[in-house]
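*** Residues and shapes ***
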Amino acid sequence: MQIKLKHIVILITLASFGGIGYGFYILEDMPQIAHKFIGSGTVGLFLIAMPLFLYKESKRRKVQDYMLTEENIRKMQGKEPKKSENQ
């Protein structure tokens, strides 16, 4: 069975939220360890899960479609492209 990147991202996200939740749960009893769980969960979310998700979602996209060129701005505004005088 092949594990897909989607499943890895979901697993890391759930583990991170679980770590953050557990850190807040034990915050009163063991504040030193609780802060480590909260920090680890935050790092897992923002430095591991989010870049993996962005990589997975942007694999098949063209960067040129998202650049703000004059042609793309005109498409967004619904205007016709400018035609040069000699055409």
